[in-house]
Sequence to fold (359 residues):
Amino acid sequence: MGKTNQDYSEALDWVRFTLNPEMTMPRISNWREVYDFCDKQKITGVCEPTRFDVHVDEDVLLDWLALVYSLRKNGDIINHRIADLFQILYRDGIPCCLLKGQGNALMYPDPLMRIPGDIDIWIDKDKRELDDYFIQKFPDSKQSFKHLKVWYEGTPVDAHDTPLKLYHPKHNKYLQEWILSQKEEQFDHQAALFGTDMLIPVPTPAFNAVYQMGHIMIHLLDEGVGLRHIIDYYYVLKNLDSMTEAEKQGIRDVWHKLGMFKLATGIMWIEREILGLPQGLLLVPPDEKRGRLLLEDILEGGNFGKMSKRQIIKKKGFLFKGVVLALHNLKLCSLYPAEIPYKLIAKVKTFFRHFTRKI
Fold:
């Protein structure tokens, strides 16, 4: 078993305080461990200590400031690349909407606090049109189950014909119908990227409440999630504060229909108990058992599960990768039971395609 939240208590106390600075500042005895934890979870910007009246060991502080300077500079570069890319797409008549990533950063008190990743865009074209356009524009494009991956100015771009796909056929059918019903509102909802003058479409908070819950679920099925995802969702929930109870109930109803409700209860426990989100901002009652199960996986694996022991085993070969992923999903099956069988079926099909190509 990996380290528990008790082993990371100082680091988690610091994360909780930086998200809720009105709380009492925790005492930190080992800043190096806190820094290493934040780096593993890719939340060094969120937890940067110079915003507070606190003494940090000089060697740790210098490492921390250097990393934060780099991520802020990179965030600014990524924002300008997004603006440039959207101008190209608009010029070519390609309607698009920015998903998560730098769009999530707009919800943070300081948008450059969030470490940037890939650029995710939702294209208002069917899959064939999307593939034809991007493969012609970017010949090194690579296809996957979820998106088409391209590179713009050296930055990975995931182009989606739909923001999210689920493995469960019935759930996915309902999801695509729901997305279609929400699409016009999302493409009309615009915001200015931090540091640029360009207005671009970004999802509404209500859409994000469903979409990003599903995004977390799919990443748990495929690899893992880190605290960065959960902090993103912390700000999604804070942005729902002005919604009516009927609107919030609408989100809960969609979670039920998409098999996300159990996962939501676990996430709510982490948001309240670990990150300090006020009880009144939770959309469903928190479930401690599910929350602790998810938290253990997050603490062990770090961002996208990249630091987990299973990642080492996966490198031993395709078969090992399939077995490890199956065992990981069975361990977490109480969070998303309906998706598990269809994910395993998908992995079996992938294995046989891989095996037959070898023959």
